Amino acid sequence: MWKTWTGRIAGVLLIATGGAVSAQETGAIVYYEPHSGFWDVFDASNPGRYARSDENPHDVLESKTRGGRTITWVVTYDDVDFNTNFGWDDLTEGADRRATLLEVLDYVSSILNESPATPIHVHWNTSTNSPMGSTLASMGTFFFTSNGFSSGFAQSHITTGVDPFAGVADIEGQVNFGRVWNSETDAPAGNEFDLYSVVLHEITHGLGVASLLESNGTSGISGGDPGKYSFLDRFMAADDVDPVGTGATRALFGASPDFLGTTGDLISDRLVYTGTNTVSSFGSNPRIYSPNPFNNGSSLSHWDFSTGSPVMLPSIAAGVQKRTYLPFEVANLIDLGYPNAADVVVVDPNNIYVDFTAGTNGAGTEGSPFNNLASALSAVAADGTIHIDTGTSSETFTGGSAINQSVTLINETPGGGVVQIGTP
Predict the structure, then answer these.
(1) What integer best gives the mean pLDDT of the chain?
(2) CB 336 within 8 A of CB 151
């Protein structure tokens, strides 16, 4: 059975100066939950249940990314604060669940490749316990309500290093631990929902992969049109020509946050995404989930099922893993305002690739080969294989080199041979 993810979006309006508030706006804060239509208004000087506590974080992860960059994640759990012995605080599985969350954040860091000067705060509200509930988890970020396009507080904080409003977390969420979960990083059983996959999905909503469009075209955050919309909304378009995704498109927004489409477009099952990087990676305009009737919390905030098996589909089945973004999802993060986002290159140390004619020294994979033997010998595992695709090398190595191990060199060009180095 398929279960729905609901990506909760939180909206913020700042009207009167209070605390560490962005110069953009000041005042009362409005929390908005589109899948239920729930609004929660509170004063910036008294955030109530949204108030962030920096005194005793439960988990702190310094996650190294490429180029010596680091994202520091600070995580708090109401389950742990309130000693619920449930959810993130479960006596048997709580520690494994928190460790899995940190694995997810580490992966996200490796993709974003940012280095904010201050920590990024993730807060988990008290877990629910609904064994028959269709919502597995929900998560979102905060937004200012002034008219414009935005990916939210988390994106702004991560990419600029400046916290838009230090009184609240960057990302808020909740998990329904009443369902049967695979809490660790091994493969889920057929009846288990994979916590890693679901948390990655929800964190991604918190990063800004979320629509602020209501079914009538107004903003769910500011309540009007023009209004506050997300960058995901900014790049949505209607495709009136079959096959959907390959023809001319009709933009839902212009340069300003003014909805140009129709309410029928939002339930047409013909919405596509036109972000430049995403389209280049996908090869055409990927479809946005836009079913009829409009499904609050799922419509417009997910990829359509026709896009394959990305992380950000509207639902997931028990026993299924979706633990890495598809390439076009990484490209979409660039479109949403993460300029350094890039897919993680997974190098197999047992199979290293070299192309001596390559202009740049790659990572040692088949798609990104090294251009010299020294790098390959450094990366290859003992008893591993170096695949030489093209060219020749005149490199020399002395006794202190990396050849102090058994390595097989295979010349992959037609007629090439095999050379054994070291003692097998």
Answers:
(1) 83
(2) yes
